[in-house]
Design goal:
The protein has 1430 residues and is mainly β. It contains 8 helices and 96 strands.
């Protein structure tokens, strides 16, 4: 069942977003705004009252200064209580006032509404009464109508008969006649006695009938439409007929000589036609266009509208297929200023189709059509299908809508398994997927919509590879009940006023609605059914809600469902269509083919067809169309001329696509065979008073077949009839017309003929006067043609004048100019004797015209007719002539042309004169390939050769055969005719390990019968002990080995090979330095062989650097045994190693850690036993030392750590740690990309494991990026640090702290020396402890005993001299003086404390054993310490 289209109110509905959802929301917003205003007013009044009370209080405090605080407090409390009571009363009064106002407003609105309803009801009753009267009148007239009709009955009668027409091809023909009769006659149209059926040729015929005027319109008539058309009118009382003849003449169009088959589309007639008559001519037309989804394109035509009026213009209409295109957000139209355009801002496959521009005026319709192809955009996932298209919404209701679409073409992708449908509410960008599982048919009911909201939809296809891009978004659709609008009625009031009410308002008081009627299934699918019904009558004023029940057939339903979409378990009758029938492909144009096919047998609800093509011989199928076409004929565009193609078709409906049809037969893309276009350029070449010699140019297009000849017609200017000149066709394009009257004016026209027939004649020539030419100058050249048109040059050809004047023609001048220019320019300053000229230095993309003037002894003759305009631009895919030699040694020039037709011919020329010398040349042509062979090439064949291909768009090329190119081709030819044995390798030598010399060469191929010989110094040598010769014919290698190569072997070595007719020779000259090189190498290899008989070095000493940045000296030894002795030496001194090398491993290593200059020297490794000895030397110095440092730099650079900041008292140090660092390495420091030299401010240095840059006393100028760079000979290894901003501030602050701490450390109080840590003394003696102190400022010195202050007395004496010499004397030491004595030295920067242990023993006691006294170790005292004793 067909879907219901969207009603008109859906198209006019304003799809608003959520802010305009319903009236209740607006009412709540109004209420909220009114309350806000009330609260704002009350708060403003409260603030005013508070301000006035505060002012009164201030006045009281200023005036009543004597009032006590208690009284003032009581007064303020009373006033506050009074103010609260006043505010409460005011709020209550305002609330009561607001409620009363609101109630009164509601009552007024209700009264007004009741009054309007009563008025509407009274007016509705009046209307109903009028309708009742009208119905009564109609019933009475219905009884009287039969008798009236009986009096009107009569047979058909034709009032205006058909009129014959003669039209041009591609014009529309409209046949009209008028007939009357009762009952209304039935009209049928016939063509040559056969009934015309519109369905047989869709779009070809259009039959219409309006008020007795019947029309038959033939759309774009062609030659086959020439016939007699009849119209037969019949009713129950008789029959009449009328007929007319339609003659269709062939139309001639210079720009499109081949008629392109059009699609069977009939465009509707325009409803409005401008009153003015305009003559419209298309100057530039848009062609077949290929684009991709998402791109932009503009279809544009340039027009010439006559007359050109600013205020009145014809109307421009654009059609896609048969649908009128309207402006939208996707398409924009423009018409004016001599052009009409249709622009697409974002292409989708929905935009694919046949676009027709129609210019409608009273003078008729001018139109142009071309196809726009839109390919799929690149998929989001590789292999995903293309996007669906033509998304439509149907049956919109208050909670659901049915969405339909068309499936994509899956020529190269896997089949579509389903679709996802997305919806989005208008005004938002939130897309919601409607179905969880993919649906398999192209139709889906979207439910769950909210009434009153507007939605847009999109669809995505799914296959095994992934999900496609989304389709174009549908038009917005509102979720509205279509029945609501039907229930509206407009009642006219007095004057021009009217009121709109619902039907139920006239029903009175209805409590229970009536039953719904006309219940039926409007849409049936595999898993759902759409039910439709008429609303109940009466229905009542309350909102309706429907309950739906379902059940098996024959039993009452018991399952309740709410809504309009119900699921069902029965299967859908529509299935996948069957494959289309036989596919036929036929020629159309040079780049298109017409494909026709039989419709499928089971074509249920077809959406259209997809057409695929592939190049014959391949299996790479590509889609022709990307949107289903509805008709069974299609024009495939964009094909390659001369290529063969195969086509297939598949049908599409909502369920899916059919199987592919059978493949068509292969067809070569060529233009269809038609009659040739007309000749042009008729020129008068000579006249003797009784005859005229005419020349003309061949037709631009031959119609696909060779031109058989030309027919000339003539007439005198004052005569109306044309007379045939030649009854038989002329072969040449020049002819002398005899039997003319002298002094008369004549005009001529010429027609060309081929197998298809005689083409249209040319336009009449100019008026030529028959009078004898007697001027001494030559006549005009003629037949100006162009070839080899490139981006900045072209070649102009012409023919010599027939009338040479009083003397022979000696040369020609060529003039040219741009089309719009007024002045002619001369291309050659001196006359050229050739009948061709290559014009160079032309502007690419410009259009030029040319003319030629002949010259003789009398002067310059009249110019030729102006040539046709030529665009200076190389054709796409332009090919050039190639030169070569075939397998037999013949030299040829070859040219290929894929744009050939059956009538095309290759024409080879030398110096632009057609080659006719069969003794020197031979032409062979096969298909689209042609070759010009030189039979006996020599210097006479030098020159310019050209080739042109007839019946093409100027395909031509030229080739200059100069002496150098001819010599190259002759050498190639000689090699082919006199074959040589190709050699893979020329004669060469090879030296073996024992000093033997091998001479060898290798041929490409040698047969078993091949022979060879070696020649040394013009003397053939044979196989012997001194010269061992052999040949391997399977590999083509011939060799000679000499065991002992001596000084006597200097000379020339030659190998000669014969193999059938082919031969080859290769020589090697070993004389002088070349011979000495071979001799020295052979002697060296012989000595090496002898050296290797004992212990020897397989690899000599060499070095490398390990990952730990150690230098390793490595050598490999061979042929050693247990008794072999290995030694390392440095500067001929034995170099001791921790372990002897293991000779069985064959590798000896010596590690040099942390290489420096002290490791310079000559390192030697020696091997020795009773069989012999060998040595290997490596000197580490100079270049070797530098290379080692570079290798170490590479390891160090790769292991370098990021730059780190270390602050010192002197400044900021940037450090880079690495495995090893030496000052000889090539390192650089950069500050802001400027190299830093070492200075007092920037000190550069390093240690064994790091490199550093010390910034002394940093300032603000030292901020910036620092880079450390180490160069390893090939690349730079860099580490960077940005010392600016917070990093610099923190480092600078730390530097300041360290600097201050260092200063304090330098100037704090300290003990320079003099005090031991332990003192032993006998009782009764005097102990003197003396030391030197330092400090700036002078320190304070304090002595302690057992951490207690020592009271000064005669027993304890303390001295401080010169602020640096301190002494403490204990007189008469007793045992009580034993203990720990401490001295504290401190100033404002800090100090230190030294402890001395004093041990006292009595006289006669054994001296205690103590360790030797050492200098006492001080303990630091910070500057913040309060006292030295802490």
């Amino acid at each position: 069942m067909s879907l219901v289209a969207l009603p008109f109110y859906q198209k006019r509905h304003r799809h608003l977003d959520q802010s305009y959802r319903n009236t209740r929301a607006r009412y709540l917003l109004d209420e909220y705004a009114s309350k806000r205003r009330t609260l704002t007013q009350s708060s403003s009044q409260r603030s005013l009252s508070q301000r006035s009370s505060s002012q009164r209080a201030a006045s009281r405090t200023s005036l009543g200064g004597t009032t006590c605080r208690i009284c003032a407090k009581r007064v303020s409390e009373l006033e506050e209580e009074q103010r609260e009571n006043e505010s409460k009363k005011r709020y209550q009064s305002l609330e009561a006032m607001y409620g009363e106002t609101k109630r009164q407003r509601f009552l007024d609105e209700l009264a007004q509404l009741e009054e309007n309803v009563q008025l509407a009801r009274s007016q509705a009753r009046d209307k109903l009464d009028k309708y009742a009267l009208l119905e009564m009148v109609e019933d009475r007239m219905a009884w009287e109508r039969p008798s009236y009709l009986e009096r009107m009955r009569r047979a058909p009668e034709i009032l205006v008969r058909l009129r014959s027409h003669t039209v041009w091809e591609r014009m529309n023909v409209k046949l009209c006649f008028t007939v009357q009769g009762f009952p209304t006659p039935v009209v049928q149209w016939y063509k040559d006695g056969s009934l015309i059926c519109q369905a047989a040729e869709p779009g070809k015929y259009r039959i219409d009938s309006n008020y007795g005027v019947h029309t038959l319109e033939i759309n774009r008539a062609d030659f086959d439409d020439t016939a007699t058309y009849s119209a037969v009118a019949t009713n129950s009382y008789g029959q009449v007929s009328t007929n007319a003849a339609v003659v269709v003449r062939r139309f001639r169009d210079d720009e499109e000589p081949f008629r392109s088959v059009r699609l069977p589309i009939g465009l509707p007639f325009s409803s409005m036609i401008p009153y003015m008559h305009f003559d419209v001519q298309f100057l530039e037309k848009f062609g077949v266009t290929f684009r991709r989804e998402g791109e932009t394109v503009t279809l544009k035509c340039t027009l010439l509208v006559t007359p050109e009026l600013k205020r009145v213009q014809p109307r421009a209409e654009w059609y896609r297929d048969d649908v009128l295109v309207k402006e939208s957000k996707w398409t924009k139209m423009f018409f004016g200023e001599g052009q009409a355009s249709l622009s697409f801002s974002h292409l989708n496959k929905d935009d694919e189709g046949l676009y027709t521009l129609r210019i409608v005026s009273r003078g008729g319709v001018s139109e142009h059509s071309a196809f726009l192809f839109v390919r799929d955009a690149d998929p989001l996932v590789t292999g995903a299908p293309g996007a669906p298209m033509d998304l439509q919404c149907h049956d919109a209701n208050r909670d659901y809508v049915i969405v339909t679409w068309k499936p994509p073409n899956t020529t190269t992708e896997s089949p579509v398994i389903g679709y996802f449908i997305d919806r989005c509410e208008v005004g938002t960008n939130n897309w919601v997927q409607c179905n969880d599982a993919p649906v398999k048919i192209c139709k889906y009911p979207v439910t769950g919509l909210f009434e009153g909201r507007s939605y847009v939809f999109r669809v995505r296809a799914v296959n095994s590879a992934g999900v496609s891009r989304p389709s174009r978004v549908s038009d917005a659709v509102a979720a509205l009940d279509p029945g609501d609008l039907k229930r509206l009625q407009a009642i006219h009031l007095e004057g021009e006023k009217e009121i709109v009410i619902y039907e139920e308002e006239l029903e009175g008081e209805v409590q229970i609605p009536g039953p719904p009627t006309n219940l039926h299934a409007s849409e049936i699918s595999r898993n759902y059914v759409v039910l439709s019904w008429e609303p109940p009558a009466p229905r009542g004023k309350d909102p309706l809600m429907y309950f739906i029940e379902k059940g098996p057939e024959g039993r009452p339903g018991t399952d309740g469902a709410r809504g309009a979409v119900c699921t069902s378990d029965f299967a859908l009758g529509v299935t996948v269509p069957s494959a289309p029938g036989r596919v036929l492909a036929s020629r159309n144009t040079r780049t298109s083919v017409v494909v026709q096919w039989d419709k499928p047998k089971h074509a249920e609800d077809l959406l259209g067809y997809y057409v695929d093509f592939c190049v014959a011989g391949t299996n790479l199928w590509e889609p022709c169309n990307h949107k289903p076409i509805k008709y069974n004929r299609f024009v495939a565009h964009g094909l390659t001329t001369g290529e063969q193609y195969i086509f297939r078709v598949k049908a599409v409906n909502a369920v899916g696509t059919s199987e592919n049809s059978q493949e068509s037969d292969a067809i070569r893309v060529q233009a269809a065979l038609t009659v040739p276009s007309h000749p042009y350029g008729i020129t008068l070449l000579n006249c003797d008073g009784h005859s005229m010699t005419l020349g003309w140019k061949v037709p631009k297009f031959s119609g696909g077949a060779a031109i058989l000849g030309y027919y000339i017609d003539k007439r005198e200017v004052h005569h109306a009839n044309w007379h045939e000149v030649n009854p038989s066709p002329l072969k040449d394009t020049i002819f002398t017309v005899e039997g003319l009257t002298e002094g008369s004016l004549y005009e001529f026209k010429i027609a060309a003929a081929n197998l298809a027939g005689i083409g249209e004649p040319s336009d009449p020539s100019e008026h030529f006067k028959c009078e004898a030419w007697t001027m001494p100058e030559p006549g005009p050249a003629y037949d100006l043609t162009f070839c080899e048109v490139r981006d900045s040059s072209l070649v102009l050809l012409w023919k010599a004048p027939v009338y040479s004047g009083s003397s022979p023609v000696s040369g020609y001048f060529v003039d040219f100019k741009e089309v719009d220019a007024g002045e002619w320019l001369t291309a050659n300053q001196t006359a050229t004797a050739n009948r061709y000229l290559k014009a160079c230095d032309l502007k690419n993309g410009k259009t030029y015209v040319f003319r030629v003037r002949a010259v003789n002894a009398s002067g310059v003759g009249r110019p030729s007719d102006m040539s046709e305009p030529v665009l200076v631009e190389a054709r796409p895919g332009t090919k050039e002539i190639s030169a070569g030699v075939d397998d037999e040694g013949n030299i040829y020039l070859a040219f290929d042309c894929q744009e050939m037709t059956d009538a095309s011919q290759f024409t080879w020329c030398k110096s632009y004169e057609e080659i006719a010398d069969e003794g020197r040349f031979r032409v062979e042509t096969a298909g689209d390939h042609s070759k010009l062979y030189f039979k006996n090439p020599d210097k006479e064949d030098l020159g310019t050769y050209s080739v042109s291909v007839s019946d093409t768009d100027g395909v031509s090329s030229s080739f200059v055969l100069d002496a150098e190119e001819l010599e190259r081709l002759m050498l190639l030819s000689n090699e082919v005719k006199n074959p040589t044995i190709p050699l893979k390798s020329e004669l060469a030598y090879e030296i073996f390990d024992k000093g033997q010399v091998r001479f060898w060469l290798q041929a490409e191929h040698l047969s078993p019968d091949a022979s060879y010989r070696f020649i040394i110094n013009d003397r053939e040598v044979s196989d012997s002990e001194a010269h061992r010769i052999k040949c391997d014919k399977a590999t083509g290698i011939i060799e000679m080995v000499m065991d002992r190569f001596t000084i006597e072997n200097e000379g020339t070595y030659t190998v000669q090979i014969h193999d059938g007719k082919a031969k080859s020779q290769s020589s090697l000259v070993l004389i002088g330095d070349a011979f000495r090189t071979v001799l020295d190498e052979a002697e060296f290899q012989r000595k090496e062989f002898l050296r290797k008989q004992g212990p020897h070095f397989a690899e000599y000493l060499h070095w490398d650097v390990t990952e730990e940045c150690e230098v390793r000296l490595v050598c490999k030894v061979a042929n050693t045994k247990r008794e072999t002795v290995f030694k390392w030496l440095k500067d001929d001194v034995l170099y001791e190693t921790e372990a002897a090398p293991d000779l069985e491993k064959g590798v000896c290593e010596l590690l040099i850690p942390k290489l420096s200059k002290k490791d310079h020297g000559e390192y030697k490794a020696t091997l020795k036993d009773e069989r012999g000895q060998d040595a290997s030397v490596l000197e580490i110095a100079g270049k070797v030392y530098e290379d080692i440092l570079l290798a170490m730099s590479r390891v160090c650079g790769m292991s370098a750590s990021p730059l780190k900041v270390l602050c010192t008292p002197e400044g900021i140090r940037l450090q880079c740690f690495m495995k090893y660092f030496a000052e000889e390495m090539k390192v650089n420091w950069y500050h802001k990309d400027a190299k830093i030299p070492s200075s007092e401010h920037m000190r550069i240095g390093g240690s064994e494991d790091m490199a550093w840059l010390h910034i002394c006393e940093p300032t603000e100028k030292d901020k910036g990026k620092y880079t450390f760079e180490i160069f390893d000979g090939k690349s730079n290894h860099q580490r960077s640090l940005d010392l600016s901003g917070q990093a610099f501030d923190e480092a600078f602050a730390e530097f300041q702290q360290l600097k201050a701490a260092a200063f304090a450390e330098k100037n704090r109080g300290r003990v320079v020396g003099g005090l031991p840590d332990v003192v032993t003394i006998m009782e009764g003696k005097t102990l003197n402890l003396t030391c030197t102190v330092f400090g700036n400022p002078d320190p304070e010195v304090v002595w302690f005993k057992n951490d207690q202050d020592i009271p000064l007395s005669e027993h304890f004496l303390v001295k401080l001299e010169q602020a640096k010499f301190v002494s403490m004397t204990i007189k008469g030491v007793t045992s009580e003086d034993s203990g720990k004595y401490s001295m504290s030295v401190k100033n404002k920067y800090g100090g230190e404390k030294i402890d001395v242990t004093v041990s006292v023993y009595k006289h006669g006691e054994k001296i205690p054993e103590v360790s030797l006294p050492q200098q006492a170790k001080p303990k630091l005292i910070p500057a913040s310490a309060s006292s030295p004793g802490e």
